[in-house]
Amino acid sequence: MAHLLGAERLHLEFPTRTVFDEVTLGIDEGDRIGVVGRNGDGKSTLLKLLAGRLEPDGGRVTRRRGIRIGMLDQADVVDPGKTVAESVVGGIEEHVWAGDAKVRDVIAGLLADVPWHGQIASLSGGQRRRVGLAALLVGDWDVVFLDEPTNHLDIEGIAWLARHLTSRWTADAGALVVVTHDRWFLDEVCTDTWEVHDGIVEPFEGGYAAYVLQRVERDRMAAASEAKRQNLMRKELAWLRRGAPARTSKPKFRIEAANQLIENEPPLRNPVELNRLAVSRLGKDVVDLLDVSVTYPVADAAPGAPAERTVLHDIEWRIAPGERTGILGVNGAGKSTLLKLVTGEVAPTTGRVKRGKTVKIAVLSQELAELAEWADERVSAVVAEQRTAYRVGEGSKAVELTPGQLLERLGFTNAQLSTPVKNLSGGQKRRLQLLLILLQEPNVLILDEPTNDLDTDMLAAIEDLLDSWPGTLLVVSHDRYLIERVTDRQFAILDGHLRDLPRGVDQYLELRRQAFAEPVEAPGSVASSLPSTGSGSAASAALTGAERRAAEKELSSIDRRLEKLAAEIARLHERLAVHDQGDYVGLGVLGDELQQLEASVADLETRWLEVSEAIEG
Question: Do domains 3-212 and 287-494 have the same CATH topology?
Fold first, then answer.
């Protein structure tokens, strides 16, 4: 494989610390590298050094002549004065870029819900980020650097990005270097992993799973070596403790050796060891959503348009004690509304919500609003205000911890304990927020995008804590790894209905592709601009040649999708016929699935008629 770029003896210092010291590494064609490490250890800085956006204090970065490098930085912004189309494809004519399969795939995969001719200034922060990612991916690059590319992408978007990157080059061409905390994405895309820590970059073969295996083995070997070192130190210290006269009578080098062992002894690790926080007793009844629907008024509805929008339809969900459930759905599907029904923040328009008498709900929100009142207080003082001692564990293994000990077990150093809350990093605030919530002793915990601002090590620690938390857990997250790691079952909100997913995230992605996937035309192009409702409006104007070809292509796509749905419906009828007719719950699940498939068929048939009329008109 040809060499693309390399770094030799890189050295970089910031005013308060050394970021890299004597780092040497290289990137060859075919490399797919994931970069992991704790927040603040230099992952983003490494990408900037390699891409040429930052110059090292020492050493050098060499690049092959003529190499094309593309980078998505966390700080990159798109020009708010441009339109989406101008930002992504520039002044290239539509018939030119629309003929490029890669460009069409990028636009359809990232910008399906973004107005193609809309101004960047009118978009949300997440939409702008996706426009920036699309603008990068439509280009031709030898090396692509991506810094947190999965931010603002839902599970479908992350799956699309993984497919795009794995098929973008042949196996022995191009190179990718990506910084992300999304561990599923790392495993799906990367064949090598770089861990940034303590001023060095340590390489590992394979994606995230392989990296974890190798790191565990490395730590095991280091622990064995450390155990030998500790035994020697104990022997030396035992000798030193024989008293001052004995010490002064022994050779000086023995004293110096013992002191050196003590001085070099590393600080104890502070893993999360909260095996089980006490929770309030939870009875057999938690929260039941019974035939619930939620309808919101539509602000500034156009004349003739519906004045209300139904977000959730006929939801039936009985949450059990100890249930661990993940909720999936696209942005705007109604996930937050569903959680607010559980907490009581939203009242159902129809149906009712029944809560058990002993239920105590706590929510880890995305906004960190819980910390605002303590912004100027020290971390240790904030926790001390809650309680003077905390009981961790059960029975003979139960221990009482001081606030300082509890914080240390969540990864806070002694220096951070005296830091004002407002000066903490995003990840530190997130850990403190979770700790304060758990110390309220809830028995139902709701996590709304809990992985924001956390690195992979801290995500693993939080997951370890959640593993042993004994209450009912409801999680909404775009982090597939987290969902599959800490929950036992998953539901999806599809067309306002709550659907059980026996096969988990894979089944959700299949359902989305089958029932909701749009043709791979760009937003704003001819096919996507055809009307989605109304049987005769498409025939009001004659189609150009390009428009006709696009419409005919959409018809072919609809025909194929209808054939697949017909086959699925036939298989489902067979399952219904052989299913135990006394199993009303199972029959109900199959019936709901059949109803959703038939609704998808009806929608596709309506669209087929609209496009046909447009062609004939």
Answer: yes
